[in-house]
Specification:
Elements: E1 7-10, E2 14-15, H1 17-22, H2 27-34, E3 39-45, E4 48-54, E5 60-65, E6 70-73, E7 81-89, E8 92-98, E9 104-111, E10 114-121, E11 124-128
Antiparallel strand pairs: 1-3, 2-11, 3-4, 4-5, 6-7, 7-8, 8-9, 9-10, 10-11
This protein binds ligand 1AG.
Length: 129
Amino acid sequence: MPASLCGTWDMISNVNFDGYMSALISVYLRKIALRLKLRKVIEQQGDQYIIKTLSTFRNYAISFKTGQVFEEFTKGLDNRHIKSTVTWQGNKLTCEQVGEKKNRGWAHWVEGDKLHLELHCDGEVCKQV
Ligand code: 1AG
């Protein structure tokens, strides 16, 4: 069993967030987004998850069951409609996001007492802890 991702997690590092965002949105919002200290709140009941990304500027939340494709609308982010599927790959909770943008997705995992997130889109990879 992978370590639980549940809890409230405050960002301590964020590498190449601007590069990742450049694959998705224009420069104006990126300037604001780059300054944010994001908080993740992750809740789980069985294979049902809720992941909230919270900030002083905007909030974003998704709710899904692992192994089942769901319609994701990235409201307040890049505002795209994508088909998302989240599965466990080893110790990583991994999401594939199929839509207009190629090679889009993310993975969450716990290492020690820290929550990690890798976001990718096109050739860009952002690493958040
Ligand atoms: C995510 O995390 C969303 C995390 O899917 C937010 C990360 C990136 C934002 C994406 C594109 C930039 C678009 C607009 C920037 C404007 C505001 C930024 C506000 C961010 C806080 C909501 C993966 C996973 C589950 O944790 O969602």
